[in-house]
């Protein structure tokens, strides 16, 4: 229903934002990760929203970037993961950390979210592994740009799995991959070698 709402922050809690726009105050459910990144009350902010309509509830869920909203939409499409479950996951970990967990098959990291068991985490990995890709940090207007085009995303994703298997943290792996200029003729082995070289300079 609403693509986004831009207005003044009237109140913030760890899971809810009151945003005033045109003299209307909107209650918007937000993950903890969003609450921690919001400016204080009185500031103006643009929140990208998802509208959940059920027989017993009408709720707005909000995020600071279209990219975060997109990963939320993917989560709620997974069987057994509703709007609140998806919000719980994105409260426990950032969107990028979730992508790392999905791509590296780390069900344990996902299952740390309240209300998400190991079976649900494994289902998320199974259903979303081919649907998520790494992204760069959000740019200044709260949008996000692709880290890899479709032609080379597979090579980077495979390199990511290899780096995490070698014991590097997700953040270390992402920083290393961001230093690699991937071309269409590079395979995952070549990407991995260049990423490993760049790690020593990070």
How would you sum up this structure, described in words?
- There is one protein chain.
- This protein has helices at 32-35, 66-76, 83-92, 95-104, 107-110, 118-128, 150-165, 170-178, 188-199, and strands at residues 4-12, 16-21, 24-29, 44-54, 57-63.
- By secondary structure, the protein is of the alpha+beta class.
- The chain has a 5-stranded mixed beta barrel with strand order 1-2-3-5-4.
- Helix 8 (170-178) crosses helix 9 (188-199).
- The chain is globular and about 55 Å long.
- The termini are far apart.
- The relative contact order is 0.10.
- The model is unreliable at 136-151 (pLDDT under 50).
Task: Specify the structural class.
Answer: alpha+beta
Strand content: 15-25%
How confident overall, as mean pLDDT?
Answer: 83
Helicity, as a percent range: 40-55%
Which segments are poorly predicted (pLDDT under 50) over 5 or more consecutive residues?
136-151
| Overall 3D form | globular
Spatial sequence of strands, sheet with the most strands = 1-2-3-5-4
List SSEs in N-to-C order: EEEHEEHHHHHHHH
SSE blueprint:
Blueprint: E1 4-12, E2 16-21, E3 24-29, H1 32-35, E4 44-54, E5 57-63, H2 66-76, H3 83-92, H4 95-104, H5 107-110, H6 118-128, H7 150-165, H8 170-178, H9 188-199
Helix pairs in contact: 7-8, 7-9, 8-9
């Amino acid at each position: 229903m609403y693509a986004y709402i831009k207005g003044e922050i009237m109140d913030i809690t760890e899971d809810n934002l009151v945003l005033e726009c045109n003299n209307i105050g909107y209650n918007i459910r937000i993950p903890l990760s969003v609450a921690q990144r919001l400016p204080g009350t009185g500031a103006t902010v643009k929140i990208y929203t998802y509208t959940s309509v059920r027989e017993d509830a009408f709720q707005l869920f909000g995020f600071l970037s279209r990219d975060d909203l997109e990963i939320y939409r993917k989560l709620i499409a997974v069987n057994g993961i509703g709007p609140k479950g998806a919000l719980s996951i994105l409260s426990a970990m950032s969107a990028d950390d979730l992508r790392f967990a999905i791509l590296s098959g780390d069900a344990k990291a996902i299952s740390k979210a309240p209300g998400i068991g190991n079976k649900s985490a494994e289902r998320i990995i199974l259903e979303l592994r081919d649907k998520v890709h790494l992204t760069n940090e959000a740019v200044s207007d709260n949008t996000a740009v692709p880290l890899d085009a479709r032609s080379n995303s597979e090579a980077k994703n495979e390199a990511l799995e290899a780096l995490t298997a070698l014991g590097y943290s997700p953040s270390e792996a992402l920083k290393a991959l961001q230093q690699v200029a991937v071309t269409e003729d590079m395979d995952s082995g070549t990407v991995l070698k260049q990423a490993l070289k760049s790690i020593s300079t990070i």
